[in-house]
Amino acid sequence: MLLSTKGDYGVRALIDLAKHTGEGPVQRAEIARRRKIPESYLDHLLAQLRRDGYLRSTRGPGGGHELAKEPADITLLEVLESLEGSLAPMECVLEAPGSEAGALCGQQWVWQDIYAHMRQRLGETTVADLVEHEREHERQAAAMYSI
Amino acid sequence: MLLSTKGDYGVRALIDLAKHTGEGPVQRAEIARRRKIPESYLDHLLAQLRRDGYLRSTRGPGGGHELAKEPADITLLEVLESLEGSLAPMECVLEAPGSEAGALCGQQWVWQDIYAHMRQRLGETTVADLVEHEREHERQAAAMYSI
DNA sequence: ATAATTCACGACTAGTTCGGTCAAGATTGT
DNA sequence: ACAATCTTGACCGAACTAGTCGTGAATTAT
Fold first, then answer.
1. Residues B102-106: what's their mean pLDDT?
2. What is the separation of C-alpha A125 from the centre of its chain, rounded to a whole number of angstroms?
3. What gap in Å lies between CA B44 and CA A123, rounded to an integer?
4. How confident is the model over B17-47, as pLDDT tens digits?
5. Alpha carbon of A106: minimum distance to chain B alpha carbons (Å)
6. A60 beta carbon < 7 A from strand C?
7. Mean per-residue pLDDT for B49-53?
8. What is the topology classification, in CATH, of domain B1-69?
9. Where are the domains of chain A?
10. Residues of B in contact with A36 (CB under 8 A)
11. d(CA A20, C1' D25) / Å
12. In angstroms, how far is C26 C1' from B60 CA?
């Protein structure tokens, strides 16, 4: 797996926060319950996201977490790289294309192509898109149920 | 990283064998030296590739390893999945698109798209292509040197 | 003041994977 | 017999994963 649960859970949390913008701070426990994330683990991910400026937190009763940016201004690429580090699929894609290490690898050119496509897709997808997709999914589920 | 050194080294070994088809068995030590792979580690990778039918080995003096298939009939996809297991970039891409786990994930649709593209590219690239690319690289390097 | 609520931060842990090494054995050529 | 070569499995340290837990700090309600 390229992504660990960090990238999965962290994005889930951002989606949850994006869906509740303008309703005041959302508590960790709520996010954890709704998105099925162990609460004490979510802690670390929220801390990371806060350090990188994606959300701000307030303590005390009525406190919680809020997005610090517009959902449409947060790309999947930047969030995942914040949570997971580099998304390079293999070591040698990070080497220069003409380098000795790149040539020794033998599959560098294939993976650099795949990596570029991956970053393109992740870079053009925002948290707002993810929320929109989820809302669409909910509408379809509701329609099914009403039949 | 999605790929460990297994996928890297294993493919290097296949490229090396493909380049020496028709010259009789190639020894482990030769491959290890040319491709900069720890020999006793390469051992395991050759064993895996043999089990999956990509090469055959002969023991004793003059023994070594040979490809069991045409280089053009070995795709990068199958080799890497043999060496690394599933290349799924995250857990939820393996869930059904409409499932509960898929919906909970939130980014499933994006990654299924990326995964499909990745498999497409890897599936249409063969060991023969990798060898050809390497030969092209060598020609260019030789041209540079002759100036 | 003080109690209750909520986040903040770091220590700790069990389990797994990574990237190997090493030793003992099997097989074959000379 | 002996040397070259592959075969197999045991073993190992370091790093990473996916958490838990405890203490403390900030804020609000009473």
1. 97
2. 10
3. 38
4. 999 999 999 999 999 999 999 999 999 999 9
5. 6
6. yes
7. 97
8. Arc Repressor Mutant, subunit A (1.10.10)
9. 1-69
10. 104
11. 27
12. 10
